[in-house]
From TrEMBL:
Residues 9-134 form the Response regulatory domain. GO terms for biological process: phosphorelay signal transduction system. Keywords: Phosphoprotein. The lineage of its organism: Bacteria, Pseudomonadati, Campylobacterota, Epsilonproteobacteria, Campylobacterales. It holds the Pfam family Response_reg. InterPro entries: CheY-like_superfamily, Sig_transdc_resp-reg_receiver, TCS_response_regulator. The modification 4-aspartylphosphate is found at residue 67. The keyword Phosphoprotein applies. This is Response regulator.
Length: 147
């Protein structure tokens, strides 16, 4: 993947190849320049954000899109670890999941998720959500400067 150094860095943590593909397609249609990085499990997500192993040169994400039900380390654990780490806790984490369980919503906000979005089933709605996420987080919201 060729990276655009002026683009926003987005980490997608998603084990479902179809959902990852939908997100990638929606991001490709975006008016906001972005570098989408995809990892398939929670352990890889933590290695990426901590720049460990094969991710030693990974950029610090401007935003993390996090699924809940992941292999190796689930999204709840990933969110908890990110928000408890002084070097990572400022990264906005958006939970993007198929779960509509109230206990998941409550748990993720208690772990300091920046938002919780239920994945829609069709591509058009999914694209609208991705576009809204990008517009909100990279056009409207003022994020801290990376150090």
């Amino acid at each position: 993947m060729q990276t655009n150094h002026n683009a926003v860095e987005i980490l997608l943590v998603e084990d479902n190849p179809a959902d990852a593909r939908l997100t990638k397609e929606a991001m490709n249609d975006s008016k906001i320049a972005n570098n989408l990085h995809i990892v398939e499990d929670g352990q890889e997500a933590m290695d990426f954000v901590r720049k460990l192993g094969k991710y030693s040169d990974a950029p610090t994400p401007d935003l993390v899109l996090l699924d809940l039900n992941l292999p190796k380390k689930d999204g709840r654990e990933v969110l908890k670890e990110i928000k408890e780490d002084d070097n990572l806790k400022m990264i906005p984490v958006i939970v993007l999941t198929s779960s509509k369980a109230e206990e998941d919503i409550i748990k993720m906000y208690s772990l300091h998720a920046n938002s919780y979005i239920q994945k829609p089933l069709d591509f058009e709605q999914f694209s609208k959500i991705v576009e809204t996420i990008e517009n909100f987080w990279f056009t409207i919201v003022k994020l801290p400067t990376k150090v």
